[in-house]
Hints:
The structure holds 2 protein chains of 2 kinds. Chain A has one domain (2-229). Helix content of chain A is 75%, strand content 0%. Chain A is built from 8 helices and no strands. Chain A has helices at 2-18, 20-44, 50-76, 85-97, 108-134, 140-161, 170-192, 203-223. In chain A, helix 3 (50-76) packs antiparallel against helix 7 (170-192) and helix 5 (108-134) packs antiparallel against helix 6 (140-161). The longest helix of chain A is centred in the first third of the chain and has 27 residues, at 50-76. Chain B has one domain. In chain B, helix 2 packs antiparallel against helix 3. Chain B is flat. Chain A binds chain B through residues 55, 59-60, 62-64, 66-67, 69-71, 73-74, 77, 79, 116, 119-120, 123-124, 127, 182, 186, 189-190, 193-198, 203, 207, 210-211, 214-215, 217-218, 221-222, 225-226, 229, and chain B through 3, 6-7, 10-11, 14-18, 21-22, 25-26, 29, 32-33, 36-37, 43-44, 46-48, 50-51, 54-55, 57-59, 61-63, 65-68.
Amino acid sequence: MVEFVEALTVILAVGTVRGWRGALSGAGAALAVLLVLVAVLGPALGAVPLGWIQLGVGALLLLFGMRWLRKASLRAAGIIPLHDEAAAFAKETERLRGHGEMGAGFDRVGFAAAFQITMLEGIEVVFIVIAIGAGRAGLLAPACLGAVAALAVVIALGVAVHRPLAQIPENTLKFVVGVLLSAFGAFWFGEGLGVAWPGDDWAILALIAGFALVALVTTRLSRAAPERMRISA
Amino acid sequence: MKWLKTIWDEFIGLFVDDVSFAFAIVIWLAVAYVLFHMELAPPLWRGPLLFAGLAAIFVENTLRRARK
């Protein structure tokens, strides 16, 4: 959902400055490419032995999830600035105005800007969907449904409010997603190594609690860093 | 070809933000792989050991960045 919110900010900027035809067709084309990626890569992973998938996907989920968690922790502690959707919207609007007046035909600048941001943010969503879906048989469809539901919510909110979703608690969402992805990553990497997790699948809940606790304590300790090292948002 | 490089950079950026952090995670996963395959860790402790290493890397690297 966080990724869709970031994409929506730029698409709104494109639509406002360059017109909605280029913005919506660019975003739509990128979504079509991303759907093809999921449709091709998801089932293709079924041909790889599960143990290898769990090792590979577990390692990638850990790199991805712990990176998010670290960044969210540093942002929560005030060490690095929070992502500001309103500022991102203003910056993108300014950048698009710099491309000059639109011609009479199809707006390639608007199309390219909307296509690029939807692809860049969407690749992260595709990775999460495929990684979650690859860990166990039958998980791909629910993972896809979750992503589509998040997309639908963001589109509905975007259509309703017609401005960047600056009120969404983005860092909190990233913190939670970082905890979940790290926990799933550790669990699947362990499964791939043949680790007998205490409590079997219930160990995922313990890992979620463990990563959350570690991240919260680290955030608190980071806040104690000298004031001069902080960057104001 | 610039757009291909942009997509590739973005893809790598999904997993690597701070190189030392990503490197430490990969090294620990490799160490765990060797430890568990060579039966050097008691079976019941393997899961908690894997988590403890990851947690230690997270705390050390985040605090180091906070105090930089």
